Amino acid sequence: MPRSAIINVMVQAAMKAGRSLARDFGEVQNLQVSLKGPGDYVSQADRRAEEIVHAELSRARPDYAFLMEERGVVEGKDAQHRWLVDPLDGTTNFLHGIPIFAVSIALERQGQLVAGVIYNPAMDELYTAERGGGAFFNDRRMRVAARTRLSDTVVGTGIPHLGRGHHGQALLDLRNVMAETAGIRRMGAAALDLAYVAAGRMDGFWEDALQPWDTAAGILMVREAGGFVTDRKGGQDMFGTGSIVAGNETIHRSLLKALAKPVR
């Protein structure tokens, strides 16, 4: 599949950062047995990956702005374009030696998501999407799963942990969705969860308390793979609310309905 120039730039940045993460990931298991543990090492790996992505994208498009997990907002001369970057989505997985993590890069043009790349270096899995051009997994076109009954689906989510999120709401959501599905998965990397929905590996996904860099690339991928993405109220303010619900048209609608059920 021929890629556009902008996708090539993004893939190069993601894969270069991914190679750095893969080298660091190889050291994590050795550090698990130390008293101090690998926490500080992983933080440095995260920052190194972000430096690589920033340098690569800035070299190719020096005037574009950034919204990055570590650096935050970086203003650019070109106010029409903004990169949204998560250099290591799935940090806790990385920390524990679990090979489910990714570099996630998205591009906004005039507030619209126009390109996205998600790369899992541990599995050498590359997901790309461009607005109007479809979504691809290792250069094979992706489509969302075609299941229409919630009872047949496997759905991904995120579960809040110590000091994060609304635990009561999360438990209610789990109760409502688990009663209607064939299975729920908590993978630990929202970008990859959305890529899995786009690839048809999971039928749907929902989560709250997410940041724009967690979801931007994945939102575009699901849409370009024929799926639907909204916030949990069915609107388009995913970045503002931090909530997201994704799936094919029917499953997306069913998930919204299940998540809206009142406390019984």
Notable characteristics:
264 residues, alpha+beta, Fructose-1,6-Bisphosphatase, Chain A, domain 1, D-Maltodextrin-Binding Protein, domain 2, 2 domains, eight-stranded mixed beta sheet, five-stranded mixed beta sheet, 39% helix, 25% strand
Summarize this entry quickly.
This protein has helices spanning 5-31, 39-60, 91-95, 167-178, 190-199, 212-224, 238-241, 249-259, and strands spanning 64-68, 72-74, 78-89, 102-109, 112-120, 125-130, 134-137, 140-141, 154-157, 183-185, 204-207, 228-230, 244-247. With 264 residues, it is α+β, with helices and mostly antiparallel strands. The mean pLDDT is 94.
Describe the structure.
The protein contains eight helices and 13 strands. By secondary structure, it is α+β, with helices and mostly antiparallel strands. Strands 2-1-3-4-5-6-7-8 form an eight-stranded mixed sheet, with helices on both faces. Strands 10-9-11-13-12 form a five-stranded mixed sheet, sandwiched between helices. A hairpin with a 3-residue loop joins strand 6 and strand 7. Helix 5 (190-199) packs parallel to helix 6 (212-224). The chain is globular and about 55 Å long. It starts with a helix and ends in a 5-residue tail after the last helix. The mean pLDDT is 94.
